[in-house]
Amino acid sequence: MCRLSNNQEPTIPPPENVFPANLDVAELLATGWRPSAFRQFILKVHSRCDLACPSCYVYEMADQGWRSQPRQMSPAIVARTALRIAEHARAHRLADIDVILHGGEPLLAGPESLGHIVRTIRGACAEVGTRVRVSVQTNAVRLDETFLRLFNDLEIRVGVSLDGDAVAHDRTRVFANGRGSHEHVSRALRLFEGPFHHLFAGLLCTIDLRNDPVSTYRALLEFDPPGVDFLLPHGNWAAPPPWRDPDSAATPYADWLIRVFDEWREASSFRTEIRLFHEINRLLFKAPSRSESVGLSPSSMVVVETNGAIEQSDILKSAFEGASATGLHVLTAAFDDALRHPAIVARQLGDRALGPECHRCDLMRICGGGLYAHRYRPATGFRSPSVYCPDLYRLISYISDRHARDTARLKGRV
Fold first, then answer.
1. Which residues on neighbouring strands pair with residue 273, listed in sequence order?
2. Whole-model pTM?
3. Which of the two ends of the chain, N or C, has the fewest CB atoms closer than 10 A to its terminal CB?
């Protein structure tokens, strides 16, 4: 199945008796289960974007709530959000937290506004003794030395979205007039070659099967990223991602990633960390995952929208209208209230949030059911396996087998 643009109609949400709406949080708490504190706060500082990517999960998929969001987070919402974050850090005695400036496109908020947000949050958290690490995820179209000087002063690290070389990137990362953005992004990335290199957090690349995997990876390496995060396009059982037929056992995304894995693994020297491979490696050696894409570690992130709404991961906007909503707001609710919301509890339950298909799988602990948003199926809510289940199984199995072969060879067994 090929679907180059999502452009979904709003999807009907699942019935209230479907997971996780039917989760009895009070019963869980009575058995002794306790939620994990939020440690990652994603702030939607600007709700619009200067690109018009046809497959964007925020603007082109099921939830069109961005249309009613204020363009920018107001000073009043910033101030209350800072107090709520500090309140949460104090209550859970958090030594440090992460704040991610996000959008839309966060740079549309401008340097002055971004500086104010960071200083306000750090000021509030300093009073409770919590260190605040800050990063920004940007398409880099507007990234220039003015922003980088600010980020340098405030120790803000920068993640950039780049999908490969000019041809690969410009297939989808386009302006409203259809013109590609690679020239702008590559110009911005060259700024990290000088005194700002320490601010560079890495590259985020969304997989497009039309792009050659090895060429894509090598194009990313040209910018010397400290890390690369390859993302599966967002979709689910009701709205499958491009080239992912839910009824097929084919593994096009695993096949694409395996070619990158081999190139990365066989390199004569270390070039960059690839997050997905690194997390699978950690899980194979029984360490906990630090990513929601794989593994069973509890989710520790929460989103604050531009209007102050407290939400789950915005990736859930790919599922149905209101899928990320909690009904909570920083003006009237604490983050601890969100920790008791059934949908957020579900993302902290580990294997108890997975259905019988996952429990029958020998790779359940490593795969973890895949990314939560990719599990959505109207009839079962979020208790199905990932729509990428065959791809995840093949990729994890391949990496595991490759480890076993390499280890045996090093020990002289083959």
1. 227
2. 0.94
3. C
